[in-house]
Each structure stands twice: as C-alpha cells, then as structure tokens.
Automatic annotation (TrEMBL):
InterPro entries: NAD(P)-bd_dom_sf, SDR_fam. It comes from Heligmosomoides polygyrus (Parasitic roundworm). This is NAD(P)-binding protein.
Length: 175
C-alpha cells in the first residue's frame, strides 16, 4: 500500500524536489503552497515522474489561515484515508524574500515571519493534525531546515530567531 505524504510548502525548491521524489516512488501526496501557478508546475512535474493524477492532492492557500489548515487535513483524510508521513517544509523569511535587510524590515515584517513560521509548527501540526480525531495517523514527522542556523547571515535575524531546531525537537517530545 502506498504511503500518504502530507507535504507543506511544495511549490518550489526543496519542497518541489521532495514532492517529485515521493511521487516517483508511488506515494500519494498532498502538496501545498501560496502560489497556485508554482504549485501547478510542481503537480505537472510529479506527473511527469510517473505519478497518477488521483494520487496528487493540490491545495493552494496560506497556512497562517485556520480555514486553510482545516481544509488541508480534512481533504487529505477524505481523499487518501489518513496521513502516514508529514513533511514540514513551510515557512519563510518574510514577505519580500530578504530584499530588505535585517531590522530595517520593521515590526510588521517580524510579525508576519513569526506568524508564518510558528503557525506551521504549533497551530497546524499539533492543533490541526495531531489533536483532531484522524484515522490512520501514525505520522513520521520531518521538519526541513534550509538555512544554517549557526552561520551568521545579514538580513536573517527575524527568521533565525524563529527557526530554532531545538523548538522542533522539544515539540516532537510533547506530542
């Protein structure tokens, strides 16, 4: 039986490559992202790798929104019967992808980054995925860290304050 992969942040980069790999191995995959055209490109690449259209569930939305979180969980369970592996690749450095440097970004940008990165871990993974009564939810959990935390980088202070791998490890012990 093919596993069901729940992949947050799949519209480009590491998430896209991960989606294509799982699809090429015959998994059923839920892909998510904020940009519909980028996500559609991911789906098309997955199908070129051998995936069947019915084995891919594509949901466009902003994970900061509770209704998107709920839709992702219920749609995945309704379509595939459960979740086997959750890959959290969602998150980001801010609304402008680091065009503005460091603390010049202001508190609105900090609030956005905090909201985006903490909601994918805390609200979504625990409240939505692990607390709800979901059938077949023996999740193997993987959190992707794509920016080295110990390497200083100009303009990354807000992001690195939030992307703390120890937080993820502690959170895994809680659930």
């Amino acid at each position: 039986m093919a596993p069901t992969i729940f992949l947050l942040g799949s519209s480009n980069g590491i998430g896209r490559a991960t989606a294509i790999l799982f699809a090429s191995e015959g998994a059923k995959v839920t892909i998510t992202g904020r940009n519909g055209s980028d996500l559609l490109e991911t789906k098309n690449l997955m199908m070129k790798s051998g995936a069947k259209g019915g084995d891919i569930l594509m949901i466009v939305g902003d994970l900061r929104k509770e209704e998107v979180q709920n839709k992702l969980i219920t749609s995945t369970v309704d379509n595939f019967g459960g979740i086997d592996i959750l890959v959290n690749n969602a998150g980001g450095t801010g609304t402008d992808n680091c065009k503005e440097q460091g603390f010049k970004k202001g508190m609105d940008e900090y609030d956005y980054t905090l909201d985006l990165n903490t909601r994918t871990y805390v609200l979504f993974l625990i409240r939505s995925a692990l607390v709800q009564d979901i059938p077949k939810i023996s999740i193997a959990w993987m959190a992707v860290q794509f920016i080295p935390l110990l390497q200083p980088q100009r303009g990354m202070a807000y992001f690195k304050a939030l992307e703390n791998e120890n937080f993820v490890l502690d959170l895994m012990l809680e659930v």
